[in-house]
């Protein structure tokens, strides 16, 4: 497999292209302004895109979903409990976004500083959800067979109700795309709408902490790490 990471200028959100041996590819977290680089990479390498995945519904991870999905002609997959954020990306962020649909908060300002119009956000045309919408408990794993890539979507609420880890093997090594649940040395915030300290604590113990220590962690922001390192050094684990 091949992996390409594209880091957005807005909040340093990481977008990743995972390329399988059959040259199909999956894109994780289409953040702000990543479409051109991702599409150029796909075309230059003769790849066959099969899906775009969102670890959660915050707009710094989904801003380019509509444009990128249209360019690649693939759907966006997201947990059902986070789908509502795609319809109101700024209003569902509380103080980070705005108090209403108007993108007046820090994230809207960061998008504007990147030369984009925050009001130009578009909803992806084809959104496919998995999991429960009721926002309680934790859903069972969902297996996604995307081209030659088998990905396990593991519900990991706490940062948002529908936060998801995407688990797969890359060249025989276990890899977890953790979004804003787990970072190198820290964790995602729980003070935004949908965040929950207790659910995050359970996720960290029963989901993240239970992964194979050899698992490579690819977070939504910041450097990669692994579960063994986080178990040893991350105070939240």
UniProtKB/TrEMBL annotation:
Key word Hydrolase present: yes
Protein name: MBL fold metallo-hydrolase
Alphabetic keyword roster: Hydrolase, Metal-binding, Zinc
Phylogenetic classification of the source organism: Bacteria, Bacillati, Actinomycetota, Actinomycetes, Micrococcales
Pfam families: Lactamase_B (PF00753)
SUPFAM superfamilies membership: Metallo-hydrolase/oxidoreductase (SSF56281)
Source organism superkingdom: Bacteria
All copies of domain Metallo-beta-lactamase, residue ranges: 12-221
Cofactor: Zn(2+)
GO terms, molecular function: hydrolase activity; metal ion binding
InterPro entries, sorted: MBL_Glyoxalase_II, Metallo-B-lactamas, RibonucZ/Hydroxyglut_hydro
Species of origin: Cellulomonas rhizosphaerae
């Amino acid at each position: 497999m091949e992996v390409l990471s594209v880091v957005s200028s807005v909040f340093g959100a990481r977008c990743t292209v995972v390329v399988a041996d059959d040259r199909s590819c999956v894109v994780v977290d289409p953040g702000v302004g990543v479409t051109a680089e991702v599409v150029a990479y796909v075309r230059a390498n003769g790849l066959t895109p099969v899906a775009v995945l969102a670890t959660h519904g915050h707009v710094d991870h989904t801003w380019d979903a509509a444009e990128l999905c249209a360019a690649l002609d693939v759907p966006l997959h997201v947990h059902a409990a986070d789908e509502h954020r795609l319809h109101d990306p700024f209003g569902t962020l509380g103080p980070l976004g705005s108090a209403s649909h108007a993108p007046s908060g820090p994230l809207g300002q960061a998008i504007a500083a990147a030369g984009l119009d925050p009001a130009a956000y578009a909803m992806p045309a084809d959104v496919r959800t998995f999991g429960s919408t009721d926002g309680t408990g934790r859903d069972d794993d969902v297996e996604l067979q995307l081209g030659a890539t088998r990905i396990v979507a593991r519900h990991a609420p706490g940062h948002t109700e529908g936060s998801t880890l995407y688990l797969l093997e890359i060249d025989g090594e276990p890899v977890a795309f953790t979004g804003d649940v787990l970072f190198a040395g820290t964790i995602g915030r729980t003070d935004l709408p949908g965040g929950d300290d207790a659910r995050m604590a359970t996720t960290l113990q029963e989901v993240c902490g239970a992964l194979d220590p050899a698992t490579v962690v690819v977070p939504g922001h910041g450097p990669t790490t692994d579960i063994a390192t986080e178990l040893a050094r991350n105070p939240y684990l």
